[in-house]
Please model this.
Amino acid sequence: MIGIVASALVTETRARERAENFPVALRVLPGRYREPLHAAYALARRIDDIGDDPSRSPAQRLDDLDAFEASLRARPPAGLPLEPFLDLLAANRYDQTLTRISTYDELLGYCRLSANPIGRVVLAVFGAAVAETAAWSDDVCTALQILEHCQDVGEDLRDRDRVYLPAEDLDRYGVGVEQLRSATTSREVRRLVAAEVDRAASLLDSGGPLVRQLTGWARVAVAGYVAGGRATVEALRRNDFDVLAADVQPRRRDIAKHAARLLAVRR
Model:
């Protein structure tokens, strides 16, 4: 019975990985890298699930996050740094107390806790965590997070009463929060999303130097993440930023195309 449950959990985790904009652990990677990347993803998703549990109140979820942190500190993840996961827990605590983002700077601060730690874990897995690569990785991870917020803006509001796009930007483009509940994407919402996607695309430009700086399997893996971001930008633009009426996802062939281009550029 335990084996059946474990197998089901692995299957569910792999399905969630495939739904991401980027390849979590490319099949070409050796097992010594794939296994910790899968483990890191599963742990990050577990933290998010606790923070999003619809059957629990915000106060209860805060207690659950505290309990999970205590267990994590007592038994740190083997082969993975602990600090990034503590940051993810902090991001989920933030979600319980504040459901609106006021400014772009505040969004960047949120991404420092909710997204950038994942890049730090990836670099640690490959032994490539130095100051320069970490700074570029932070830009890439923030870009990926902003793109996900753009894709999920309707779902985040309807299911969790959260709006991650900055309120100052909603005001700038004449978007009321209730417009984000609509089944159709208004011209104002499209302009808002387009502006956030442009910001993310600019942050992704840091991905080129990051890939060139890395070597070996780290270079291959990170190229996949950056390529996923670029393909997502393409998908959102191709669909004219229609994020409320459609589920906009990057095409796998576009991810492969961008990865090949990144890997073709030498240091």
Remarks:
- DSSP finds 13 helices and no strands in the chain.
- Residues 147 and 197 are 6 Å apart (CA to CA).
